[in-house]
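Reproducibility note. Readers wishing to regenerate the assembly model reported in the main text can use the exact inputs given here. Chain order matters: entities are listed in the order in which they were concatenated for prediction.
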Amino acid sequence: MQFLSDNTAAVHPRIWDALRAADAPDAPYDGDALSAALDDAFGALFGREVAVLWTATGTAANCLALAPMVPPHGAVLCHAEAHVENDEGGAPGFFLHGAKLMLVDGPDAKLTPEALTARLAAIPQGVHWVQPHAITITQATELGCVYRPEELAALSALARGRGLYLHMDGARFANAAAFLHADAATTCGDMDALSFGCIKNGGMSAEAIVFFDAGLADVARRRRKQAGQLQSKGRFLAAQLLAMLDGDLWLANGRAANAAAAEIAGSVGERLLHPVEANELFVRLSDAERQALRDQGFGFYDWGADAARFVTAWDTRQEDATALARALAQL
Amino acid sequence: MQFLSDNTAAVHPRIWDALRAADAPDAPYDGDALSAALDDAFGALFGREVAVLWTATGTAANCLALAPMVPPHGAVLCHAEAHVENDEGGAPGFFLHGAKLMLVDGPDAKLTPEALTARLAAIPQGVHWVQPHAITITQATELGCVYRPEELAALSALARGRGLYLHMDGARFANAAAFLHADAATTCGDMDALSFGCIKNGGMSAEAIVFFDAGLADVARRRRKQAGQLQSKGRFLAAQLLAMLDGDLWLANGRAANAAAAEIAGSVGERLLHPVEANELFVRLSDAERQALRDQGFGFYDWGADAARFVTAWDTRQEDATALARALAQL
Amino acid sequence: MQFLSDNTAAVHPRIWDALRAADAPDAPYDGDALSAALDDAFGALFGREVAVLWTATGTAANCLALAPMVPPHGAVLCHAEAHVENDEGGAPGFFLHGAKLMLVDGPDAKLTPEALTARLAAIPQGVHWVQPHAITITQATELGCVYRPEELAALSALARGRGLYLHMDGARFANAAAFLHADAATTCGDMDALSFGCIKNGGMSAEAIVFFDAGLADVARRRRKQAGQLQSKGRFLAAQLLAMLDGDLWLANGRAANAAAAEIAGSVGERLLHPVEANELFVRLSDAERQALRDQGFGFYDWGADAARFVTAWDTRQEDATALARALAQL
Amino acid sequence: MQFLSDNTAAVHPRIWDALRAADAPDAPYDGDALSAALDDAFGALFGREVAVLWTATGTAANCLALAPMVPPHGAVLCHAEAHVENDEGGAPGFFLHGAKLMLVDGPDAKLTPEALTARLAAIPQGVHWVQPHAITITQATELGCVYRPEELAALSALARGRGLYLHMDGARFANAAAFLHADAATTCGDMDALSFGCIKNGGMSAEAIVFFDAGLADVARRRRKQAGQLQSKGRFLAAQLLAMLDGDLWLANGRAANAAAAEIAGSVGERLLHPVEANELFVRLSDAERQALRDQGFGFYDWGADAARFVTAWDTRQEDATALARALAQL
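Running the prediction on these inputs yields the following structure tokens for the assembly.
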């Protein structure tokens, strides 16, 4: 009974169907009909014009989204818990050619206008001090929490006022939308680019970068090629993304994962380190308690010395969630 | 009847089978059982210890192979026709952080010890002049020709004598092996790393970097992550590679593509710009002749003003090859 | 009466003499006789074999020292107050091609083995997490404090044990040596490279990178050229460094600056934020107090909202130091 | 009697005077009064508004001029003989983060619109092919020849028409102006930036980047700091540049060097490989002839197997030039 990560979840049957259907000859790279359909499909989802690029990993999506926003002598403001800072093997430094990540704190891994304003006030403008060019936030956050529409509005107001680009790492965007009972546009807010997650949500190997600014996308297309990310049989990536949008499969999968997390959360109330708003639970557990759970066959990661992280996915079985909830309640 | 490129060929049924079989939960990234099996599988193929990394594109394979060999102030010697120079959107400059490609000429897109020696002799050793750290060659070459074992031996002798690393871009390695009637080790010669092509040869989205030097592989693993190339469901890439080795599918597919090319070549003898040793034909054709072929439904790329390139693949249909051969003969 | 910074101090008369004496034709770049004399001159100073490169700025010295130590996928451990982190316009990101600076805290801007050990313990070894390859410390620190020999020994023991390179930013190395009443070797400890400051200490435009590892120097020489730092009339940089060593001018200048700082420190005891061990004073002062000082003609930088930084130099006039001491005492 | 290179020439007395005069305390970096005077001084020289940055080397000047023009996925068109390609240790790759130099041929190391147009026509526009963003030319060229105003006009027309930036490496700009009997604006033509050489022309350690586009200069200022090129006592670099402009010292020095070269050229007519239009002579000479000259005490570089390069400078003594002329005539 694995609750290690959603990034190893099974591939959804409808994704498989789409992959098989894509195995007809077509133009290489992103010249195929499926890749060409992405802009319209995501445009319909967000209710505005967008330019969409597929990539094979979330790390590449985040970095290729940020690369056109930030020059090598610039910086990106992000939360200290951000995936780009902690879990991407230095990818932002590589893709942005040495630009910095500037870390900002805040509860539940959320950035707030107050924290950002304070950080910005501490940066003199001279050439001795690296200047930020963009902000990146994560929806849902690395601690399983969801930005509300008004929080997003406040962040974009700040970014617009400062001339900063705004990017959303939406590795768990579907979980956020499911929690908010909101459409994609509302869940995203006014961003310049969104990394729209698919792999953790039932895909095999495709993420989408949704650019709300066509000029950024034009640069990103060249950077994608230069980064060795332009697959020759791109039709198989586009197919996954289109299948994910079709009939709102993405949202259904996000709801399923959230539901499993919510069931588990119900039995651990006071042990929770953060509200459970998406598909991740951070639970205070002693060594002995963690051992006891592992002895019962539950898989999960330690979270520091006295807590654990449990992640559900679209394919988490009802009985497994129930079993974990029960086991936690009995500790 | 498409002869545009092998990089859009269909995915082989046995690759599909392997992909479906891989859809069981396993550890993420390259921690799964299939990824773990790659070293042994390729080790058996080459008859020596190797360290193997999957990537999603040939560009990434080439650049991640070269990155551990060449510092940012160094250079790579390659043929002026090399894919790394001409078709990778500047990827080597990105992955090698500004290191240079030094171009060398030679017939059939082959590097020779003589041409390399002359180029090396022209580089003073002082700090004003960028020094080469590696040589990269392509097997089969970008002009469809195959290095013979003795040619490879001469190149590796030169590289060893000069303290240069040696890399082989094997995007069409299977076609070379099929032409040589040789095993993988003989087709490769004494390299430090090989980009073992799979996608043009019936794969979907996986190439292998075969390192014959474990230290280089250790660096490349970190660089792969930093480059956003470490997919979380890596089992689907490993599965493709294992299926390709299983029963020597790679070689069978290479032979099929070569056979189609050979049949076509038989009808265009004097028009050929280069010997047809793999699955590419470069044929002298006037504008009118190219138009005539296109009117008959043949797809291919122009090659300069008075020639065309035809590429066959593992799935080129016998009747299409025959039709093209006939059409060319009748010009 | 300026106490803004030592980096605008006048050029020492003996440096001027050396510059004029160097204006005879010689080989360009670092092929001249003066540049060739650096290794021996610094070797005598440190009592061991060294390889020395001149550069025109401290930022270049620090970054060219670190560049051969750290690959693009690596990191450097430094104090959160370090000059490389705060005041170099992102230079480490540029010179190290995206490698990270990992920040560690500690009083008086000093790194301790305890703080480093704790930071290292928090870095998992997998490819997802950037690994440190070097530590850099500043002597005297950015807060005007001096590492004692036993502190340096503890840091180098840690670095050796972990396989990390160790670099010292010695922008104010002379001030540290003067404080310790120690020779250069003792003030430096067991480093792999030292940025030996000259410009803040009476030079015009030359800093030295002293490599205690010849292999690092060989790489740095190429990186210096690639960074556009190899001046064609290098004899004028070497001349400054040789003059600085001649008769221990560096040490005399450091002592002079320290003496001025000590005099001022004597009148502000409880207001000091950090011990005054070199030539910088950090003094708690209200807005009104700072204004009062400025009204009396004293120049200095604010240090946050309720403090100020005063810096003395080799050419701080005795009467100015006395005047500032008196003015501070009278607040 | 040295004719090796102008880059080791003595420092002009008026430069020394200016250096000494600059040794009064002033604001650090480029905040001093001398640095602040550069825009107006060069603006007067070129008859238009400019933004000027000092740097310590020509390599840095060239690369910092190009860095704001070219993204990491772009390229610079230059002559195959260009200094940026051949003699800068890979600096453009470093400063431009992997962007390419695209080489173009042409007699006398000059680029022509025809050669550029042919090169551009060979670059498909897709993401697989690196796109040029700038052209750099050298005035006088690396082979000692001078672009005429109409040649410059044709190049800038091409650049404007293609949306390419245009940069001039003016390491020997004074020699070109002296040859043309033209003012600075005419010698430069319609560029976006000019590396205005000073060091080969009697300076010690300062070059100027003259930006004719203020937006480029704003980026370059940050990149200069990030590249460790922002010296803290910048007043000493500004002083050299101002002294060079004062009373047109730059032009007088250029004329002196040219006159010496012209005298020598008069005695070697048919042996010349290129017209002598500036201060460099490329002379066909056998091994024996070169040896004979060296036996007479002349210093110079070999230029391939059967030629030699002689360079004069502002301080070449009349009698040395005459002696060389005579020696060459007597061969």
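We highlight two features of this model. Chain B has a mean pLDDT of 97. The CA atoms of residues 267 and 330 of chain B lie 9 Å apart.
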